[in-house]
Amino acid sequence: MADVHIYFGSQSGTAESFSEELQEEAEKYGIKAEVRDLQTFTPEGFAANNIVILVVATYGDGEPTDNAVAFHRWVSNPKNDGALKGQRFTVMGLGDMNYSRFNNMGQLTDTHLERMGGTRIYKRGVGDDSQDIVSDFEKWREGGLWENLKKAVAEVKKEGRCVSLGESRPNSAALEKPLGSAVMSIVRSSAELPAEPDSEPSEVAARFYFEAEKCTVAKVRELRQHRSLEEGLSTMEVELEASGALQKYTAGGTLAMLPRNAESDVSAMLKLLGYSESDLNKKVTFKAAEGAGFKIKKPFPSPCTLRDALYLYCDLARAPTKKLLSALQDKLDAPAKEFVGKLLSDADALKALQSDAVCCRMHEFWALLGVTGGLDPVAFLLNCPRQRAREFTIASSPLMAPKRISLCVSLTARETESLESMAEKLITAGAMPPTATAAAREARPRFLGMCSRYISADLKEGDCVLAKYHSSSLALPSKDVPIVMVGAGAGVAPFRGFWDELRKGPQVAPAVLFFGCRNPAQDWLYKDEMSAAVKLGGGCAALARMQVGPKRPLASLFTAFSRPGEGKEKSYVQDAIKKQGESVKAWVQNMGGYVFICGSTAMGNGVLQALGEVLEGGPEAVDMLKSEGRIVAEMWG
Ligand SMILES: Cc1cc2nc3c(=O)[nH]c(=O)nc-3n(C[C@H](O)[C@H](O)[C@H](O)COP(=O)(O)O)c2cc1C
């Protein structure tokens, strides 16, 4: 039995990979650790552990990740008080400071474990994904975790747990063989494939592929008046046919969608793996290396084509991870093998390679290393970082469009940093050949976001994508109270769904929209629809009565343009809020209204600050309204 059990609650894989790092590092300290997915948690199995580390992320609005729901229910239940008597624990929580319930799960897990009788052996860690979550995790690990764990392990060995636990069985997940024991087949036709044994997803990130719905793209259109991919200017509306569980979607909810790698990344990777374009239709499957008889863990749904494996399930837009390098190292020729060995033993060099600012792509790394082919395809496909689904706020309402979900997606684009300084660091560390400097000087194309690039440049009507729906805190209240919506750019997405819902509903209290963009002639998204949703005559009752045609649900529209053109004064949505300060105060504080904010973090924080200036009670009033769920902000970037 392991000395320490590391459980993770993870949605997109960060908590899972941090747990794996802890397991690996524990070995250096002579501690036997084992990682477990909270999905496989059973009360008896969990309670039987002497020392546990919980690495848990927070999702939704302060909620557990999908794989931690059952665990969270169990630890929250006061009936289970005392069930963990004598267990030693520590918690690392992952979250994002932009959410009002920052790190809620880390905090609650820590409190519940103590309430249930556990003993905290080391302080709770707090990771903030809006800043540098990797450094937060490192600081927590290095601030005394290992000393305290060693002490706890020695105590347990000497004194035992000191509590009778009754009958307890280890978690069945621990008995399964690891993924490393799988082998891959790649053949021309499905008929040649060996039978696949029963299997399940290997990692949290891979679970999405098995659970998501396949949906057809019904429509793709540019929403900006001026589009230029070269300048990184594009905002697309995507309409997806809502299949299966997606038909239960709500306005303001979240849709996670899986992107595809760019063709150039796949072509370069095919060569490195010893394949060519003509192999893309070959079928790939996995089976256990030691023969049938136990379940294997699948990296992605198979049998599938090599095309899907490379385009959909592998993330080729990032540098290799430690896991992938370790898996490939043995089959590399010298000197690449030695360079990779050096890289694996040097945390700073690895960090430089994986820096978000540089964004070194998978094939760029191998080119700098001087490797042009011969990578082991089985090790690559099993261990390559998985492609993550990207989340978007839904821009439609099921009341108006029950079978179609719209998304509004702006292209993420920025100048790419050169690879040169990263290559120099790795050369100095002995983890790259000196020839890398010249190769690293070559110009690189502009950095484009993985999913927004795919949508802007590649997605077509009739394509099929994998998508999954999640509810969110952006939802209209059931009461008839004022609604203040504030969105800039693609941040208008949920409000398009909202004005459609308001059009169908009985709302009498005013609903107003503050909308911001750069230039009204170039990027005013949904301009016609938005204008057609606003009451005529600035809300004048007499004019409203005269109105014909569909209901106009918005009492007012306030616009702000940050680059309005020569001679015109620029303004931002926060300026418009301040200008309408008295009305905003009356809607929110006198009439019990709600404020919804959606868009970039900079814009959202500016709006929150402006609200702090116009509302009675200042920033404290804003905090109070946030905690009551009457100011809801969804921010990104
Ligand atoms: C849709 C969504 C909702 C989130 N909600 C919260 C939240 O309420 N509180 C919080 O602190 N962090 C929240 N986060 C941030 C995640 O907890 C954070 O990014 C974490 O590192 C993810 O870990 P994982 O990759 O293991 O799932 C949210 C992230 C997403 C994408």
UniProtKB/TrEMBL annotation:
User: What InterPro entries does its record include?
Assistant: CysJ-like_FAD-binding (IPR003097), FAD-bd_FR_type (IPR017927), Flavdoxin-like (IPR001094), Flavodoxin/NO_synth (IPR008254), Flavoprot_Pyr_Nucl_cyt_Rdtase (IPR001709), Flavoprotein-like_sf (IPR029039), FNR_nucleotide-bd (IPR039261), NADPH_Cyt_P450_Rdtase_alpha (IPR023173)
Q: Which UniProt keywords apply?
A: FAD, Flavoprotein, FMN, NADP, Oxidoreductase
* Molecular-function annotations in GO: flavin adenine dinucleotide binding; FMN binding; NADPH-hemoprotein reductase activity
Q: Where is the Flavodoxin-like domain?
A: 4-145
EC number(s) per UniProt?
A: 1.6.2.4
Cross-referenced PANTHER family: NADPH--CYTOCHROME P450 REDUCTASE, NITRIC OXIDE SYNTHASE-RELATED
Protein name in UniProt: NADPH--hemoprotein reductase
Organism annotation: Symbiodinium necroappetens
